[in-house]
Amino acid sequence: MSEGSNYQASSLKILKGLDPVRKRPGMYIGSTDWRGTHHLVWEIVDNSIDEALAGFGTHIYVTIHKDGSLSVLDEGRGIPCDYNEKEQMDGLDIVFCTLHGGGKFDNNIYKSAAGLHGVGAACANALSDWVDVRVYKDGKEYHCRYENGGRNKIGTDFIGPTSKRGSLVRFMPSKKSLQDIEFRYDVIADHLNNSACQCPKVHFFLSDERINKKEEFFYPKGISEYLEKKNVGKNALHPVVYYGDESGEIKVEFCFQFLSDVYEEKIYSFANSVFTPQEGSHVRGLRSGITKAFNDYAMQNSIVKEKLDGQDIREGLSVALSVRIPESKIQFEGQTKEKLGTPDAATVVESFVYERLYYYLVENKEIAKKIFSRIMEAKKAREAARTARDDVRGKVKQNSEKTTLMLSGKLVPPQSKEYRKCELFIVEGDSAGGSAKKCRDRKYQGLLPLRGKPKNISTDSENAFMKNEELSTLVYTIGTGTGKDFSMRDLRYDKIIIMTDADTDGAHIQNLLINFFFQKMRPLIETGHVYLACPPLYRVFKMVGRKTSEEFCWTDNDVLKAKKKLGSGCEISRYKGLGEMDADQLWKTTMDPKTRKLIRLTLPDIDSAGEKVELFMGKDAAPRAKWIDENIDFSDKSDFLSLKGGKN
User: Fold this and answer.
1) 488 & 580 share domain
2) Which of 356, 414, 490, 597 is the most buried (most CB within 10 A)?
3) CA 495, CA 441: separation in Å to the nearest integer?
4) Among residues 201, 217, 233, which one ends one of the domains?
5) What is the per-residue DSSP string for 311-362?
6) Whether residue 76 is found in the same domain as residue 198
């Protein structure tokens, strides 16, 4: 009998208590990297937000402590500490040691809540070395401590009388369960900033004891003030317009502003105070309502003879949308709550947005003219881009076997058509391209040398890039098309690798290409197909007789190790260009799949990434200069300037 063939009921296991979270953390917090660690913060903060939205407390304090732990303090009712006879445990154990336990399953306690599943605090406990809880309730202070992933408990103890009210939860993420337990100030700041616009009466405070930094987030006017701040420095066609409706079971508020110098739509969406970067049913209803309102107005006022494309209507449109849905109807897709799934939200939002937006156009004809002029410009640009694409496609040569792209003799294609194994190296300059051409794996590795720097597409109209030879060549080399025409099925390479020199020009080219992929071919990044090559910065070598012993290094620490390994008398050379390496060195260090290092581009937070791209690559230099002044330490004399306050 083979091993494992004796499969009976005795083989089945039931994970109890917090064991499911410890065993499969990704199921509960999305991942075990830094994103999962920060998701624990969101769960604790959301509980405090729910208290504030229920009318208890106007201040929430988040503190990153010097020891690496984090605490959240609120002014809510305080977590129940008394004994629950029915469940045979006290309130703190129900909240911190039991999955799907808490007060979110009773409409009398929370009408609409962010924490819905009753697992957030329990997840933080399960994946932490310790959780320390202080409760200020009914004039009394209580203390409890959980250790070793919630397996050990100290307390609950009555400390004494107090005039405070609320809960203080402090926890230390565990290295045993999570890959990266370092809290990032900017990530938490972005989250609290988003949360603050959903709680107009609540002040959010973030402090970091490690870098002595503090910040307050407060939006007394809610999402309209939030959108105004997002659009500071941009050319607006009109002031921010706000509408809200509290009468229905699903409550909706949204605000919008059309911008003349932005070429994509920006939608900031929320459901029950939770930011939803992956959008969902409420955003689907929003887009439908916007498109319908503008088309009905345009047709009835003889502005157009045929319906406008929704993409043209929403170009340059900035929107903040918030819905509040009763506990009995709210549906998020997954525990991380990044996408709303409630079907009714689409219908309610579409109807509300359509009525208010159509009314606004009727009542504000001069502004409507400006907006429609903007829309017609977008339509014209899209049609011009289609013509440009057709012109490039005119270079396509048909023969009996296949379609061959005429790429100005630039592309050095791989021999194989097994696209899942093929790689495209985008190489800076002809000299590096020459070395790469000599050493590449001809079967699976293709090369596309760049002549000069590609365009910064953030400063151009929507589809002007198609007239640029370098970028249009890149698009047709990859095969997927761009924007609305993008098709992953036509992808010709599994890995698209940006390989540039290790100097400022190389870094600039990297940024320009990353910006292009983010703006025009974003699914390539979302699905993990775009990489950065990591050529070494140093070569440490030593002549021993007629032989050369050498080590390639990526950091100063690597250099120290290499010098120790090779011994005295070794020399160090600093690479500043790929062309300085011969073909064998380039293959061994940068192109050989067995030994190379690659950085895969990811998009954990699309909205935050979009803001950073706009900050660094957009037309407006003022916010960029401000960010540099606040974050870059120019006194650092190393090759790479330091970021003030660590990661940012």
Assistant:
1) no
2) 414
3) 14
4) 217
5) HHHHTTEEEEEEEE--TTT--BSSTT--SB--HHHHHHHHHHHHHHHHHHHH
6) yes
Catalytic residue among 141, 423, 428, 551: 428
CATH number at residue 457: 3.40.50.670
Catalytic residue, candidates 279, 315, 501, 607: 501
The CATH number given to whatever domain includes residue 565 is 3.30.1490.440
Tell me the one-letter amino acid at 264: E
Q: How many CB atoms lie within 10 A of CB 352?
A: 23
Q: Residue 547 domain-assigned?
A: yes
CB within 8 A of 7, min separation 6: which ones? Answer: none
pLDDT, tens digit, for every residue of 558-613? 999 999 998 888 889 888 778 788 888 899 999 999 999 899 998 776 767 777 78
Instruction: Calculate what percentage of the chain has a pLDDT beyond 90.
Output: 41
DSSP codes, 105-126: T-TTT-SS-S--SS-HHHHHHH
The residue annotated as part of the active site, out of 147, 441, 503, 550, is 503
Known catalytic residue at 620: no
How many other β-carbons are positioned within 10 Å of the β-carbon of residue 514?
19
Q: Provide the whole-model pTM.
A: 0.72
DSSP result, 147-212: ETTTTEEEEEEEEEE-S--EEEEEEEE-TTT-S-----HHHHHHHHHHHHTT-TT-EEEEEETTTT
Of 215, 333, 460, 505, the catalytic one is 505
5 in any annotated domain: no
Catalytic residue status for 505: yes
Q: Is the pLDDT of residue 65 over 50?
A: yes
Phi and psi angles of residue 76, each rounded to the nearest 5 degrees, phi first: -75, -165
Tell me the pLDDT tens digit for each residue of 486-502: 888 889 999 999 998 87
User: Of the ranges 101-110, 277-286, 532-541, which one carries the lowest mean pLDDT score?
Assistant: 101-110
The domain boundary, picked from 217, 236, 268, lies at 217
Count Cβ atoms below 10 Å from residue 1 Cβ, excluding itself.
5
Structure tokens at 423: 């790689």
Give the tens place of pLDDT for each residue, 377-392. Answer: 888 877 776 776 566 5
Claim to verify: residue 338 and residue 250 sit in the same structural domain: yes
Cis peptide before 63 (omega within 30 of 0): no
Is residue 204 domain-shared with residue 84, that is, in the same domain? yes
Query: CA 197, 203, 207: angle at the middle one, nearest 5?
Result: 110
Quick one: 199 and 288 in the same domain?
no
Range of the domain at 136: 19-217
Kindly tell me if the per-residue pLDDT of 112 is higher than 70: no
Q: pLDDT category, 529, cuts 50, 70, 90?
A: very high
Would residue 143 count as lying in a domain? Answer: yes
Q: Which range, of 224-233, 438-447, 523-532, 620-629, averages the lowest pLDDT?
A: 620-629
Q: What is the pLDDT of residue 100?
A: 63
Residue 410 has a CB neighbour count (10 Å cut-off) of: 16
Whether 428 sits among the annotated catalytic residues: the reply is yes
Whether residue 158 is contained in a domain is answered as: yes
Tell whether 507 and 588 lie within a shared domain.
no
* Residue 494 annotated as catalytic: no
Q: Please check whether residue 634 is in contact with residue 475, taking contact to mean a CB–CB distance below 8 angstroms.
A: no
Q: Does position 401 have pLDDT exceeding 50, yes or no?
A: no
Nearest Cα neighbor of 28 from 119, 105, 113 is 119
